[in-house]
TrEMBL record:
The active site is at 201 (proton donor), 334 (proton acceptor). This is Enolase. Belongs to the enolase family. One of its GO terms (molecular function) is phosphopyruvate hydratase activity. Pathway: Carbohydrate degradation; glycolysis; pyruvate from D-glyceraldehyde 3-phosphate: step 4/5. Keywords: Cytoplasm, Glycolysis, Lyase, Magnesium, Metal-binding, Pyruvate, Secreted. Its cofactor is Mg(2+). CDD domains: enolase (cd03313). It is found in: Cytoplasm; Secreted; Cell surface.
Length: 419
């Protein structure tokens, strides 16, 4: 049974405060979890409770921490940690708002994850096994090696340029191939006199000027490292286009131009025709442009993966609407967008039923907590994106997969994408 719950304020990879929660059971077991934080957040995400005021630029989470240590601890003490759905229902009810605005999604998610960890630790089984049973699979990893948008000052409008080892013998083999490309990319950038310092997610942040130039540079790095772009190492983009969409004029301010939804679709179609190594585009259209996103799905959905992030915010109710309207063919899963483990699982199950792919995701502000690595394996989610080959808060997730692969041995199953 849950004996004690204690939260504290710690700091994330951007130096902003975040919530860490310890759940202690009456058998002495500890479960600890830390909550990540986004920068290009969707408008309809569950509410991340920040203190406001002057302390820590208004970003303090003392109120969220107090909510855990007070109200939530009182409600959960004495409860069994082994029924995650029940715990999460209790948290949702206790909060009482539709978007976790009262207690804070950061408070609630921290408790939700820490309870799962405590339960797994108490049973002395790995978290992925506790959450997933026997149906386990290592996901296809997407490494964000060039950072733009609000994650860097590279001046590139597209937020994420990811590479993924579509051809690999093992998870480990895939990471090794990506490491080779990553180091080659660094060399190529340096030779061109470009910046090799990294952005929020560990990708380089060079002033490459345009999306096309960034992709050309990726092709060069992949091929110089000895691989074929497309069949061995493929490319995925996250333009995070809500960030450059003008809600009033309904125009996209992209690379010095003002594009209609129609123009932007033509741009993506040309881009994919020119660079066939692109296999996935996330948030190509704004969370406020459902028609644009649906039109893209109609035009490109049978050729490439189209991932909904800001538009669905891991929210089963919003996602259901999206499925009905033919928006995207995959969903990004970020636990802190919705605020509990159980609701995240619900979104994944919904995706599976509707024939949508699922990609688990970190946030641009992270800690070394690798919960999402275990979660991806447990949910046999198929895909994950968790940053580049730099910055320990990113690498820690990939390293966790290496440990899990070693532990599973011959039983380690690899996700295949594209199928
Ligand atoms: P965020 O970005 O964590 O800053 O919201 C990640 C994404 O847009 O996928
Ligand atoms: Zn995104």
């Amino acid at each position: 049974l849950i004996e004690n719950i204690h939260a504290r304020e710690i700091f994330d990879s951007r130096g902003n405060p975040t919530v860490e929660v310890d759940v202690v059971l009456n058998d002495g077991t500890l479960g600890r979890a830390a909550v990540p934080s986004g920068a290009s957040t969707g408008d309809r995400e569950a509410v991340e409770l920040r203190d406001g005021g002057t302390r820590l630029q208004g970003k303090g989470v003392a109120n969220a921490v107090n909510n855990v240590n007070g109200e939530i601890a009182s409600a959960l003490t004495g409860k069994s940690p082994f029924n995650q759905a029940e715990i999460d229902q209790l948290l949702i009810k206790l909060d009482g708002t539709p978007n976790k605005a009262r207690l804070g999604a950061n408070a609630i998610l921290g408790v939700s994850m820490a309870v799962a960890r405590a339960a797994a630790n108490s049973e002395k089984i790995p978290l992925y096994r506790y959450l997933g049973g026997v149906d386990l699979e290592l996901p296809q990893p997407f490494f964000n090696v060039i950072n733009g948008g609000v994650h860097a000052d590279s001046g590139i409008d597209v937020q994420e340029f990811m590479i993924t080892p579509v051809k690999r013998e093992s998870f480990c083999d895939g990471v090794e191939k990506v490491a080779n490309v990553y180091h080659t990319l660094k060399k190529i950038l340096a030779e061109q006199g470009l910046e090799t310092a990294v952005g929020d997610e560990g990708g380089f942040a060079p002033k490459l000027g345009s999306t096309e130039h960034a992709i050309e540079t990726l092709y060069k790095a992949i091929e110089t490292a000895g691989y074929t772009a497309g069949s061995e190492i493929a490319i995925a983009l996250d333009p995070a286009s809500s960030e450059f969409y003008d809600n009033e004029t309904q125009l996209y301010h992209f690379e010095g131009q003002k594009l209609t939804s129609h123009d932007l679709l033509a741009y993506y179609e040309n881009l994919v025709a020119k660079f066939p190594a692109i296999i996935s585009i996330e948030d190509g259209f704004s969370e406020h442009d459902w028609d644009g996103f649906a039109a893209q799905t109609k035009a490109q959905g049978d050729k490439i993966q189209l991932v909904g992030d800001d538009i669905f915010v891991t929210n089963p109710a919003i996602f259901a609407e999206g499925i009905e309207k033919g928006v995207a063919n995959a969903i990004l899963i970020k636990l802190n967008q919705i605020g509990t483990v159980t609701e995240s699982i619900e979104a994944i199950k919904m995706a599976r039923k509707a024939g949508y792919n699922t990609m688990i995701s970190h946030r641009s502000g992270e800690t070394v907590d690798s919960f999402i690595a275990d979660f991806a394996v447990a949910m046999h989610a198929g895909q994950i994106k968790t940053g580049s080959m730099a910055r320990s808060e990113r690498i820690e997730k990939y390293n966790q997969f290496l440990r899990i692969e070693e532990e599973l041995g011959a039983a380690a199953r690899l996700a295949k994408f594209p199928e």
